[in-house]
Write a structure and sequence with these properties.
alpha/beta
């Protein structure tokens, strides 16, 4: 009898330990980590603790995320996340609500289809997000396509509506017109009643932008885009320039900027250094040089941006005409994240690169 009781205690102890082990495993997730900054080969898929939603946060089960140029910089150690934010790369996701933290007030429920703007954490199976940064996924849009919206479209909307304050009838020059932000900007400029023109590095990319509504496109590798803008506008120039290139383009930008125009800088893919009479030439145009980043903005700023975008723009993704659409270049699974980064670094993409965190065949929409 003594031996039986002893064995029973052993079994109970084993079962308790097993339950704790299973519970611990259930609180883990797969995520892409970077231990040492460097190339795409430094992206490592690893099991890490699942985040817990804090006060006012929603835990999202991620179905898909999307690449942004900032991801490449963070991987190389050149664009760290804001203090207190996740070290995991990824600025946008789409998925379903898993659970709610204390104090959530906006009516989100488990299994709601959502997309979200992030400061980081998107390359993972779960991410905790302040509820103010969630948006409902339009009814007819698959989750993997919705992942292409938050960062690119909110960036383009911020630049056009809040920073440049684009007006009806104005001419807007968008560099990298076939990129994620570029394809969003072309469509938003049309939505606002202005006229989009673009630059891009190949005929194929120009065709993508023109199919979305660009009134003209200029191949910066083969022609002087400033002359093209002058010809298109009858010498008047562009009222607004959305510039993610920076240093390399400054002379042509100033040349084709209209008097009193707004040059909005949001990236420096073409270098940060400027040599020459930038200030004098800008002054002669009475030009406005504006700059903006989104990731480092306050939670309140982002919450207001998400709210305004949700009211002014989001309905156009799901109305009868479906007049807005995210442009998808390609899709990869999470385990192929290094290949996806190489694809973006080669500047091959036209539109957004999507990462399936849940393989598409396993998704239930």
């Amino acid at each position: 009898m003594h031996l039986i009781l002893h064995t029973g205690r052993f079994i109970n102890t084993y079962q308790t330990a097993w339950r704790k082990c299973c519970s611990s495993l259930a609180k883990m997730m797969q995520a892409v980590c970077v231990d040492v900054p460097g190339g795409p080969e430094n992206l490592l898929l690893r099991t890490v603790p699942r985040p817990h939603p804090k006060d006012g946060e929603v835990l999202i089960k991620v179905h898909a995320t999307a690449l942004n140029r900032a991801d490449l910089l963070q991987r190389r150690g050149l664009y760290p996340p804001p203090p207190g934010e996740s070290d995991i790369i990824g600025l946008e996701v789409a998925g379903t609500v898993d659970s709610l933290g204390p104090g959530v007030k906006r009516g989100w429920k488990p299994d709601d289809r959502v997309m979200a703007l992030l400061c980081g954490g998107g390359y993972a199976e779960y991410v905790a997000v302040p509820e103010e940064l969630l948006m409902p996924v339009p009814p007819d849009l698959p989750l993997w396509q919705a992942a292409a919206i938050p960062e690119a479209w909110l960036t383009a909307f911020q630049l056009l509506a809040l920073v440049a304050q684009v007006k009806e009838g104005e001419v807007v020059l968008a560099h990298a017109g076939a990129s994620g932000v570029g394809t969003a900007a072309v469509q938003l400029v049309r939505l606002f009643g202005a006229v989009p023109v673009v630059t891009a590095g190949s005929p194929e990319k120009l065709k993508v932008a023109e199919e979305l509504g660009a009134a003209a496109g200029f191949n910066y590798k083969e022609e002087n885009f400033a002359q093209g803008v002058h010809d298109f506008t009858g010498g008047r120039g562009a009222d607004v320039i959305l510039d993610c290139i920076g240093g390399r383009n400054w002379e042509q930008n100033v040349s084709c900027l209209a008097t009193d125009g707004r040059w909005v800088l949001y990236g420096t893919m073409g270098g940060r250094a400027v040599e020459g009479d930038l200030l004098g030439k800008l002054l002669s145009k009475r030009g406005h040089l504006l700059s903006s980043l989104l990731r480092s903005r306050s939670l309140q700023y982002k919450a207001d941006l998400v709210s305004t975008f949700s009211h002014r723009v989001l309905p156009y993704f799901s109305d009868q005409a479906a007049s807005l659409r995210p442009v998808i270049d390609s899709t990869f699974n999470l385990e192929d994240i290094a290949q996806a980064h190489r694809h973006m670094e080669a500047n091959k993409n036209m539109g957004k690169i999507i990462i399936h965190v849940i393989p598409q065949k396993q998704e239930t929409q």
